[in-house]
Each structure stands twice: as C-alpha cells, then as structure tokens.
Amino acid sequence: MAGTINDYGRQLRPAGKRVQEINYLIVTHFHVDHAGLVQELKDKGVKFILFDMQIQSIAQMEAVIQKKMSYKPINLEDNIIITLSESRKVLQSIGLSGEVIHTPGHSGDSISVFLDSGDAFIGDLGRKIK
C-alpha cells in the first residue's frame, strides 16, 4: 500500500530479509495494494520490470491514489520496459526460467509469472466487480 515502505521492511525482518536485498520488481497489476510502493522500492535500488501493455494503467491508478493517500508517483523514464513475448529472455537474464503471460480478469492489465518449476506468482484471482 502506498506510504507503507517502513511497514513493509518490518514485515521482511522475521524472514531475515531486507528491502535492499530485492533486485527486481514485477507488478501483477496496477491497483494501489499491488503497486503503491513501486517508486519507493525503486528509490532503494530495486529495478522495475514493466510490461508495455501495463503502462497506461499506471496513470489510471495514480489518478485515483493521489486524491486519497500519500503516494510517490512512478518515474516512467528509468524502468526495464519489455513486451510479454520478451519475458522468457529477460527472466532468464536474471536467473529465472519461466515466462509472463497476460491474465486479464481481475483487471485488464493483470499478468502472472509462470516458472518452469511449476511455481506461479498471481496477483489476484477474482474478477473486478463494477
């Protein structure tokens, strides 16, 4: 959630982890509860892998967030922007075997990370109700 970077760091401690150990960030979709800390994490050195089909969703999220909470806007100039078809190659370059696929349903920009090991990272499974 936006404005909670210190809380996030405290939650990592019991697992023996620190924010500074995070190398890369992929956001499953641009809702505040999934993307509210992106710029704060980038400011701590985390590299942000952004999919081209998600870019337009950032402005939509930020328009809603800035009116309601403390939020640091995402700098769009310093990200690793790729297409979904490039995901396997990029994941391989950072030591992961797998790919990212578009999984709309909860939101139009939703993605899921599927690793060749059978593990998957999925943001939300539910369909957004309007």
**Global geometry:** globular
What count of helical segments does DSSP give? 5
Strand proportion: 15-25%
Average pLDDT: 93
Contiguous runs where pLDDT drops below 50 for at least 5 residues: none
Helix content: 25-40%
Secondary-structure element series: HEHHEHEHEEE
Number of strands: 6
Classify the secondary structure makeup into a structural class: alpha/beta
Strand ordering within the main sheet: 1-2-3
Q: How is the biggest beta sheet arranged?
A: 3 strands, parallel
Oligomer: single chain
Evaluate the radius of gyration. 15 Å
Measure the end-to-end span: 21 Å
At a glance:
With 130 residues, this protein is α/β, with parallel strands linked by helices.
How would you describe this protein?
The chain is an alpha/beta fold and 130 residues long. Helices cover 28% and strands 18% of the residues. The strands form two sheets. A three-stranded parallel β-sheet has the order 1-2-3. It starts with a helix and ends in an 8-residue tail after the last strand. The mean pLDDT is 93.
